Amino acid sequence: MDRDYYVLLKKHHLKATPQRVAMLDIIYKHGHITIDNIYSALKKNYQSLSLSTVYKNILTLRDKGIVNELKVPNSKNYYELMQKKHHHLICDKSEASRI
Questions:
Q1: CA-to-CA distance for 13 and 9, rounded, in angstroms?
Q2: How far is the C-alpha of 42 from the C-alpha of 30, rounded, in Å?
Q3: CA atoms within 13 A on the CB side of 59
Q4: Which end of the chain is more exposed for a tag (fewer CB within 10 A), N or C?
Q5: CB 37 within 8 A of CB 48
Q6: If you ran DSSP here, which 8-state letter would residue 72 be given?
Q7: How far apart, in Å, are the Cα atoms of 76 and each of 33, 66, 83, 95?
Q8: Is residue 33 within 8 Å of 26, Cβ to Cβ?
Q9: Per-residue pLDDT tens for 38-76?
Q10: Which domains are seen in the chain, by residue range?
Q11: How far apart are CA 12 and CA 14, in angstroms?
Q12: What is the distance between the alpha carbons of residues 53 and 57, in angstroms, rounded to a whole number?
C-alpha cells in the first residue's frame, strides 16, 4: 500500500501518519477524487476522522506539491497525485469533465 508515501511525506517535512498514507493511496487508486469521496473511503478504517481533518490534510498536501487540485466549474474540486504534465478537458456545453 505505501508506494513510498512515507518517503514522499518525509521529503516534504510532513509526518507520515497512517491517515495521510491511506489518503495518498486512495488518491492514487482513484486517479481523480473529491474530498467527500476521500473522506468516505477513509471513514471505513478511521471512524473518528473528521471531514475538517481531511480538508486540512489535503490542503497541506496541495501546498507541499504532493497533490494537485483540479478546479472544475460548477462542480467540486478534484485531487490527484502530482505527476507529469497531462490535460483535463471539460465540455463547455454539457459541463461534463474528462478528468
A1: 6
A2: 13
A3: 6
A4: N
A5: no
A6: -
A7: 9, 19, 21, 12
A8: yes
A9: 999 999 999 999 999 999 999 999 999 999 998 877 778
A10: 5-98 (1.10.10.10)
A11: 6
A12: 6
